[in-house]
Design a protein that fits this description.
By secondary structure, the chain is α/β, with parallel strands linked by helices. The chain has three domains: about 70 residues, Winged helix-like DNA-binding domain superfamily/Winged helix DNA-binding domain (Arc Repressor Mutant, subunit A); about 130 residues, ATPase, nucleotide binding domain (Nucleotidyltransferase, domain 5); about 160 residues, ATPase, nucleotide binding domain (Nucleotidyltransferase, domain 5, 2-Layer Sandwich), CATH 3.30.420.40. The protein has 13 helices and 16 strands. The longest helix is centred in the C-terminal third of the chain and has 25 residues. The structure holds zinc ion. Zinc ion binds next to loops.
């Protein structure tokens, strides 16, 4: 199994206690059961320091000692492994008119799930109140001791400054310039992390899903919008402004279609649910005001050539955009996560997308592996929880500049 981050852990013997602690947790999660000596060898820490941190982690209930690894002539050494139910995190995925939340254990297993049909769209000043209430309800209803909750992750659509815990612009939520993480953690007395929902899903895939063996990858989500998660050396790349991956609003050459972001010619307008319907309107000349993506797929299935062409065009345009990304970033794999109407249209859309990419890279050394996934929104909510778990396991996963409380400081 690949280890998140570099294969050689970025740690020195005199690094901070917190960094050492997270590295040991990360290695124990990835490689456990693992002897203390191997933890020391992999981190460069002394066996005394490793023993001290492991003892602390055992006392906190996060890891446990199992069996004995008796070497010839040597002293027996206990094997250290993660204790899955030693702690839990909450993940919340707010949408415009609904939310879904999960409670996960340290192994990423969902132990409780809850959904709300509640409007968030456009509430702006009340968003913190709504999210705090949903999280309180989620934690109260899961039936677990509050003191075993280690953190909260929130996955929001749009431009999110993960380092500062702020929503810069979330068109799908009708919110902008909103401080979220700090006010929520003050109310809930738990560490709160927020990130773009696609970055959250990417964290989930790295920790528990399709990308566990992939350290350089792209995650492309296609549905109502288009999103991109970038994995470089096992970490989610966020860019200089924290908003890397906004591929949905990259321009399509020669396009003048208006977009909800205020620009014209955005990729989403050609390849998303509404984009393929627009393709159909132009190709067929038909009135499409009330046409849904599901209707479009039905038209394709009964042989409407314009409907088939509209869906194939969406796949080809996205494939062309991805060719540029693949040339620049040289990923070993591209995970295509399809949802909503595009998932229904997979028979037409995906072959076009794949063949556009294959035609460019077939037989070349930098041809990435294309993986297709149709995860539901529960997995997106697990993604939100994953950023809280990643915060426990990975130094530098989010370089928060707002004061992240730790579970220890509030007990
Ligand atoms: Zn746009």
């Amino acid at each position: 199994m690949a280890i998140e981050g570099n294969s050689v852990p970025d740690v020195q013997p005199n690094a901070s206690r917190e960094v050492n602690r997270r590295n040991l947790l990360r290695l124990t999660r990835s490689l456990g059961p693992i002897p203390r000596q191997q933890l020391a060898a992999l981190t460069g820490l002394s066996t005394v320091t490793v023993a001290k941190i492991v003892r602390q982690l055992c006392q906190e209930g996060l890891v446990e000692e199992v069996g004995l690894n008796r070497t010839k002539g040597g002293r027996p050494a206990g094997m250290i492994q993660l204790k899955p139910d030693g702690g839990y995190v909450a993940g919340l995925l707010p949408r415009g008119h609904s939310s879904i939340g999960v409670i996960m254990n340290l192994s990423g297993e969902v132990v409780h799930i809850q959904a709300w049909d509640q409007r968030i769209y456009g509430l702006q000043d009340q968003v913190v109140d709504v999210l705090a209430a949903q999280l309180e309800e989620l934690i109260a209803n899961c039936g677990l001791p509050r003191d075993r909750m280690l953190g909260i992750g929130i996955g929001c659509p749009g431009l999110i400054d993960a380092d500062r815990g702020r929503c810069i612009e979330a068109w799908a939520l009708g919110c902008h310039d909103l401080e979220l993480a700090e006010p929520l953690q003050q109310r809930l007395k738990l560490p709160v992390l927020i990130d773009n929902d696609v970055n959250c899903l990417t964290s989930y895939e790295l920790l528990f899903g399709e990308l566990q063996e992939h350290e350089r990858s792209l995650v492309v989500t296609i549905g109502k919008g288009v999103g991109l998660g970038i994995v470089i050396d096992g970490l989610v790349y966020r860019g200089a402004s924290g908003i890397a991956g906004e591929i949905g609003h990259a321009p399509v050459l020669g396009s003048s279609r208006p977009c909800e972001c205020g620009q014209i010619g955005c990729l989403e307008g050609h390849v998303s649910d509404r984009g393929v319907v627009k393709n159909y309107a132009i190709l067929s000349g038909a009135e499409t005001h009330s046409l849904t993506p599901t209707d479009l797929v039905e038209l394709a299935r009964v042989g409407d050539p314009s409907a088939v062409a509209a869906l194939k065009e969406g796949g080809a345009v996205l494939g062309t955009a991805m060719i540029s990304l693949i040339h620049v970033l040289d990923p070993s794999s591209v995970l295509l996560v399809v949802a909503d109407g595009i998932a229904e249209a997979s028979d037409y859309y995906l072959p076009s997308l794949k063949s556009t990419i294959d035609a460019r890279f077939r037989g070349r050394v930098n041809a990435p592996e294309l993986i297709v996934s149709t995860v539901g929104y529960q997995s997106w909510a697990r993604g939100a929880g994953s950023i809280a778990l990643n915060h426990l396991f990975t130094p530098g996963a989010v370089a928060s500049t707002f004061p992240v409380v730790t579970a220890e400081t509030v007990r």
